[in-house]
Design goal:
heterodimer; A: mainly alpha; two-stranded antiparallel ribbon; 68% helix; globular; B: mainly alpha; 2 domains; two-stranded antiparallel sheet; 6 strands; 70% helix
Chain lengths: 447, 373
Amino acid sequence: MSDASSPSGDGDAPAEDSAPESATAALLDAARQSDLGIVLGTLLLVYLAATVLTFTDGLNSVVGLMRTLTFLGLVYALAALALNLQWGYAGLFNIGVAGFMALGVYTMGIVVRSPDPAFGPPGFGLPLPVGIVAGMLVAAVVGLLAALPALRLKADYLAIVTLGISEIIRLFLQSSAFDTFLRNTLGVGTGGGRGMGLPQNPVRELFLVDGQAGTPTAFGDLAFGTLGAGGLGISNTILIDWAYIAVLAAFVVGFYVLLERLGRSPFGRTLKAIREDELVADSLGKNVDLIKIKVFVIGCALMGLAGILWFGSQGNVSPTPQFMPVLTFYVFIAVIIGGSGSNAGAVLGGIVFATVLFEGPRRIGSSLRDVIGAETPPSFADAVVTLDPTAFLAFATDNIAPLQFVFLGLILVFIMHRRPDGILGDRIETAAAVDLSERPSGGETDE
Amino acid sequence: MGTTESSIVDSARARPGLLLVIFLGGLLLVDLAAKLAGLSLLPIGGAISADRLGSNLWNGVVIGLVIGLAGIGLSMTYSILSFANFSHGDLLSTGAFTGWGVAFLIAGFGDVPVRALLSVRDAGDATAGDIGAHIISTPVAILVGLLAAFAITAAVALALDRAFYKPMRDRDGISILIASIGAALIVRYVIQFVYGSDRRGVTASVEASNLAFDPLGLSVNAHELSIVVAAIGLMLAMHFMLQHTKLGTAMRAMADNKDLALVTGIPAERVVTATWIIGGGLAGASGYLYVLLRGTIQFDFGWLLLLLIFAAVILGGIGSVYGAIAGGLVIGIVFTTSTIWIPSDFNEAAAFAVMITMLLLRPEGLFGGVSTA
């Protein structure tokens, strides 16, 4: 927000004649009071930027870009919330997020898919809710198996073990031998490297009879008539996606409420006590291992659910580009931006990461590319040889994807250097009534 | 060594899991023997030729030496700076691309445009055959490339340390680990931006580059042989450096007990600088050798190898240079011989499983927590 727009924000404020800076500060202060305010404010800013980028292409593209950004923001928020429970609350450094999300969505797919092998890998043909619960259960059980021995390890060893588990899961899903094995024993398949198609999104059936494009339901007729081709001209797929985004938003709120309640319960207080000082919690008679296992399992189940809501809505899932370890690091960056330990921070971090850091540079890069007239050199070396800044700029904007990851890395290093607590992490919720993190200096550090 | 023996027995008694692993390992060995003999006792046995086992083992040793060489640097930074460096894999890629750029420049200078050579065939349309880099036809180019890979990667590692890790010296291991993930992203995608993203062939094919060792049934490639020679040479140099120079003694002291080393007056920052130069250089050299082995290069190959390198380092015991070499050999051999029992889809998973089992049963590694000795 620019500080020029401040006086209109709170017109009836008593500080009528005060300098604009302080009014802005007051407004920001008021926004800071409410987490919802910050999250919605960020979303509004993102929408504003999306509108600026696409308004020349008409309403349909504006709403379409907003849809993509909101979807990504919400799914990253879901995954970040689940990770925040493990890392922010209990200090468990799990970098196998991608593996647990893959377990969730693959289990859901296998349970729900039709048993008829004519349509690709066969499944059990059970209803969708059963599949979702099964996906969460399998993620939780694998989390339990991983947690039982691994939690005794040092944090960096736990990190490597979970990364190894996530890669093992991906390699299994990728393997055609495992697919054949499952087909021969259980009569179901994973589809190997080609992946599998996923069941129909129930939100789609709300609008279309059996999900078929030509046959809208009564509700679909109404929606398409007022907002779609008959009214504002927004395409039907975008409208359906927005309805699904509403579902996702409900899940984000659900995750948030669940984690907040968990955090304020006696269990949550113990959890934070473990994070602050494991030795003290142990000495006070808390069963540290059991609590860590519980939290790890709950977190893995939530990751499974996040995986289902995210990749399950994409129509198709395949192990290799989607569940590479880099996905885990994206979620980590989201949590770190928001500040580990803060649930509102995780939501905000998810939205900021997905929109500003992940999608933003691509959109801006392609918009810039359209402005530059020069032809794109075929390679970096060719671009350097031309000694022409515009040709180089054309190359850079055409290859914005690697630059964006470089930018992401710089952000990560910068945050670790300057703001290790993230945007909202300074409000990390302490376990005790007094702030234990501000201990007087001079004591021994625990090695 | 009597004490070590009894401690092993004690730990076996205390941990049934270890016994289980030993039992399973024995079972696999019996099965292997049965397979070699051609016996078939229903669940175990089958048929496998000694040739296949021999070539599997040889391939495992070659890959294992490269992984072990890369592991030395990771192990050194882990023990001296106390963090798991996730950007280590991308140092391998750095060394590979820069080293091969230099090797190409020497091998193909005059015939092929310089920009195609230095960009490792990203620019222009010269094929690997046009450039003709091979250890038999252009040995000087390959050797100079190896040296360049070492030198340039050492410089990059040092620059990363100065820019990213030095300001965080007193922070906890996890914070530096996260920063190293950021550094890994930066290095990997700068490489993609500069060298392009497609996988491409690097070495030319030369007639009669296979040397057959008939009695063993082995067919050894000239590149494999040069990799083994280079890797063992670098490891020996490392050994002499650690054991017989003042710097090596200082490094071992830092790895063993940092506070004591500082009190003794060891210049910590200078040791850290040397660690990055040696560790980064060895990473670059091993990346270069890995590409020589595989014959192809791709911007993220180092990152994909990182977990295997971690597996080697953990297996050998973090901080132990010899452990990293031994761990690399074990991981390499597991990687290639596991295909005897399981489909080749899972050979990487098998190596990770070995690493996880090791961490759970004996987190101090094969060499039992001996630091850099």
